[in-house]
Please model this.
Amino acid sequence: MGVRAAGLPGLPARYSHRIDVPGRLADEGTTRNWHYLDTAEALAEAGVEPVGTVLAVHGNPTWSYLWRSLVTQSVEQAREGGTAWRVVAVDQIEMGWSERTELTRTLEQRIADLAAFTETLGLTGPVVTLGHDWGGVISLGWATEHPDLLIGSMLLNTAVHHPDGTPIPAPLRLAGARGMLGAGSVQTTAFLDTTLALAAPPLAGDVRDAYRSPYSAPARRRGIGAFVADIPATPEHVSFPRLERLAADVAELRVPALMLWGPRDPIFSDRYLDDLADRLPHAQVHRFAGAGHLVIEDAPVAESLLSWLDEHLPQGQAPTAEATVTADAPAADTAFEPLWRRLDERRSDDADAIVEQRGAGSARRVSWRQLDDRVTRLAAGLHRIGVRRGDRVSLLVTPGATLTAVIYACLRIGAVVVVADAGLGVRGLSQAVRGAWPAYVIGETKGLAAARALGWPGVKISAARLPGATAAALGVSHSLKDLLDDGAAPALPSEPGPDDLAAILYTSGSTGPAKGVRYSHAQLSSLRDVLSAHFGITAESGLVTGFAPFALLGPALGARSSTPEMDISAPRTLTARAVAAAVAEAEADIVFLSPAAILNVVATAGELDDADRRALQGVRTVLSTGAPVSRQLLTALVEVLPNASAHAVYGMTECLLVSDITLDTMPGDDSEHTGVCVGTPIGGVDVRISPLDAAGRATGELTQDPDRLGEVIISAAHLKSQYDRLWLTDRAAVRDVAEDGRWHRTGDVGHLDADGRLWIEGRLPHVITTQDGPVAPVGPEQAIETVPLVRRAAVVGVGPDGLRQCVAIVETTPGSKRVRLADAALAAEVRAASPQPLVAVFVVPELPTDIRHNSKIDRTRLSEWADRVLAGERLSAP
Model:
C-alpha cells in the first residue's frame, strides 16, 4: 500500500511514513503495515535535536490528520529556536491509511498494537503521550505500561471510566444499536459525517474531504464500526475489565498532565472530565468555551500543547516527585482559624447570629446556639449520605439562614462549595454548574427545576422537604430536613486543612464568560481577618449585607448579620426602606452595598418614614463594594445614612478586598488625576503597575512609580488560588516575579499617585491605541460628563490598531428617544470638554451595560457598533 496521505490541506506529504510492525496477542505471527506522521526528518534537516517525543493517538473515526496543526507548528517552533519536540502521530490499525485486517481488535489488543509500533520504531524516552477520544484511552494504556519512558500525558476529550447506572451517551447508543452499527458506521458514512459535523465552526470542505479520504468504501470503514462495538458499556463486555484496570492505573500516574476540553461534546461530556480530574488532581485543565468534540479543530489546541510542554517539561526534563503534584496555594500559616471557629466559640450563646428579613415587617431570628446546632447536624447528615472532602457542592439557595448553615456545614467537612448566583442568567448559570461538575446540588424548588430541565449533574438535595411526586419529578434524593432529622449524635470527620480547596466562586460574567475562582480555606480565613481588622468588626457589630459575596461572612466574623429583603442577584431591587428595616431588626452599625444597590437606595430615599430615618442614623460605616463609585454617589448615600463613614472598597471576585477610600479623603473634582480614585491598599495587598506599550499591552516592568498608566497587578494572602479548569486563563492572569511570589493581572488599567493611592481608568481591552499612544477611557469620559446636558458618557476607539480615533457616545438630560448624531451645539461642547480629539459624538437613549454592574459600560460592544456606523451601516441602537 503506497503513501496516500499526500497533498492534503495543512499536511505536507513529507511527514507521512509507513512501517511494518510484528503483531501481538491475537495478531501474533503476523506483520501489520502502519501509516504514521513523524517530524524527525524535518527536525534533523533543521539541525535541531528533539528533547523528547510526543506520541499522539487519534480516536474514532479520525486518523493522524487530526494532529496536523501540532505536527506543523512543532516544527516551525523548533526552526525559530524554540524547544524541539518530535511528534509521532499514528494511524491505528484498521484506521486512516494503516492496514485493514480481519481481526476484531479489543482495547487490550489496541494497547498492545501501539506498544509493538513504538518498539519497532525504536522510540526511546522521554515520551509524552497525547490522545483524543478512544485514542486517549489507548494512549493512557501505553503510558501506564511504559513508566520508564513516560514523562507526561496530554489528553483531549476522552474517558477512562463510565459511572455505574448511567447510560452511555445517546449518540453512541444509537451508533451501536442492533441494526444500526453496520449501517451507520460501515455501510454508510453516517457516523463519520456526524462526527465531522461536530466541529464549530464547520470544517472547510477540503479539510472534511481529507478526513474522509481513508474511508472511501465499506471495507475501509470496518474499523469505525469495530471501534463502536468495542465500547465497554457493561461489565459483560470483553473490554470492560481492561478499562477498569486502566482507570485504576491512571490514578497512580504522577507525571505532569494536561487536559484540554471541548465542553460542547455530546459524547465525552464534562462528566468524564470531572472523573479524570479526580484521578489526576495535579493536572492542568482548560475548558474552551464553545468548543466541542473536535476540540483541536475548534480552539488553539496545538499552541496550547506546545506552551504547556515548554512550561512543565522544559528541555524534556521530568520534574522531581515533589514538584509533580501542584498545590492550589502556597503553604498556609498553621495557626490559621477556619471560618467556622466563631460558631464553635459561641455554640452556647442565645444571642442573635442571623436576622433574616421576610417582608411585611417580619423577621426570622437564628441564635448562635441554633446556628451551630444546625451546621453540625447538616455537616453530619451530608457526610452520612456520602459527601466527602473535596466533593463539589453547588448551592442554588437564596442568601439567608439556610444558605449560611449549608455553606458552613460543607466547609466543616471539607466539601467544596460552588457559588454561582442567578444573576448570571439561565445560560450563564448552566455553564457555571456544568463547568464545575458538582457531585451534589442543594437547591430550592426553582433552582432544582432548572437543574432537572437543563440536565445539571449531581445528587439533588432540596432545601425544603418536598411532596413525594414533586421530589421524584425533580430527581431529588434527599432534603435538608431529612439530614437534620436523623436523630443520631453528630459524627463529623476530621477538619480540612488550610491549603484544602474550600470554595469556587463564579465571577459576574460582566467582562466575558463567568469564571470559577478557587479559594482555599486559608485564603477565605485571610479575607475574614482583613475585613475584621480594617473595619473594626467585633462580636458587638451588626452587619447588613446587600452584596452577595459578603452576605455569608457574618458568622465567620462573630458578628450579627442580616440580608435585607431584595433579589440578591439583582442589586437594583434593594430599596432604602428595606435597608432601614434590616438595620432596625439587626441593630446594625455596618452596611455593605454594591454600586447598583446604592443607586436604587438613593433613588428611593424619599419613601423613608421617620422610624426608618431614626434606624439609619445608627449606621456608623457604609461600604460600597464591587466596582469603583463616584464622589457624587457616595455623597448622596451619606444623605441617607447621615452618621455613617462612607467607604468605597475596590476589589473583584479574585480578590474581594484590594483598596479602600472614604468619602472624606476622596480627591475633589479639581484633582489633576484622571479616573476614579479607589484609595490605598489594605490588608497586606501589594499593588503594582505594569506600564502599557504603544500597542496598549501591559508589558512594562512592575513599578510603584506615580503617574504611570498601566495594568493594575496585585498580590495578597487572600488572593484567589487560580481559576477552576481554565489553565490558559489562569496562566494569562498570573504574572510571576522572582522572589516576589505570585501576582494577579486584574485587567483594570490605572495609575498610582504620589501618595500611593490607586486610580482606575478603565479595562485593558478598552484602551484606545492612538498614534499618540494608548488612551484609557475613563478620564475623557469624566471630562465629558462635566457638560451640563450629558448624563453619562462612553469613549471608545474606531479604526485600525495603533491609529484608532476616539468617539464619544453619550446619554443626555433629558434623555433622547432615539439614536442620533449629536447636534452641532452639543457636539461642540463635548469636543471642547474632551482631552482627546473626537471624530464623532453620538447620542443614545441608554448606554449598554451589564445588568448586575450598571457602572460597567459595555465599551467593546459600543466600539464595534461605532465602527460599523462610521463605515456606512444604518444608524441603529448599539
